[in-house]
Amino acid sequence: MSDTAVSRTPDGLVIVDKPSGFTSHDVVAKMRGIARTRRVGHAGTLDPMATGVLVLGVEKATKLLGHLALTEKEYLGTIRLGQNTLTDDAEGDIITSTDASAVTREGIDAGVAELSGDIMQVPSKVSAIKIDGKRSYKRAREGEDFEIPARPVTVSSFQVYDVRPAVAEDGTPVVDLVVSVVCSSGTYIRALARDLGAGLGVGGHLTALRRTRVGPYGLDAARTLEQHQEELAVMPIADAAAAAFPRWDVDEKRAGLIMNGVRIDMTAHPRNPVAVYGPDGRLLALVEDQRGKAKSLAVFG
Description:
The active site is at 47 (nucleophile). This protein has 301 residues and is an alpha+beta fold. The protein has helices at residues 24-35, 65-68, 105-114, 136-141, 189-199, 225-230, 237-244, 252-259; strands spanning 12-18, 40-42, 51-58, 73-81, 83-85, 94-97, 117-121, 130-131, 134-135, 151-167, 173-183, 204-214, 217-218, 235-236, 247-249, 274-277, 283-290, 293-299.
């Protein structure tokens, strides 16, 4: 079959506004059908309950995903103080209810401050973290008694926009907080909700979550699955890399050396990885600086 007989999906990123109730894998499966390619992956999962920005890579852009997954993320959410759940979010059964009507704004602000900056966080037991090679959520479902070690994460911003007294379905006076969080990869917002409630002595869980940004890609670039079904919006791989990584333009000779895996001298850049572009503006590779030499992480030529 000739190349002109098939319209090939371009290499690039697809930014999806994920609907609630879909797993990240559900979205990938749907996108494989929309983009007509098996080469689709995601740059970090988003819980089924959550909505918002999910970054997918198609074709050669799947090589970018592992590096994009390490970027900063931003969320809007609602935390309910006064109830703990099995999953630390609204999808799990309520396991404790405590009157939260005496919680003060000063107490909330102090608790938020404790959970800001560089902190150690214990992920939820129903997360996908592997413990001795087995997913944590699988251990939890099977009723195992186990502990997840705390991990370092960075919460660069944790803001409370609104404090709303409410009454839960079981009659417990609760407090709902509308919050925004900017954090490093690997941070669990439902664990922040759980720990904020624990620190205030009333318990807490996440009732709503919307991811508004992954690295440089925000909701303004996101489209629903239905919109992508009507017209697939692919951010070209060269533009996607330029938005996320420092850019290094090289001449034809250096381009050839990099494409052949030669570690050439590289100029200093503010951070790694660095996106390398040829004289024609084509994305050639992602590299990192190793003692002044360019080590290839992914080659796209």
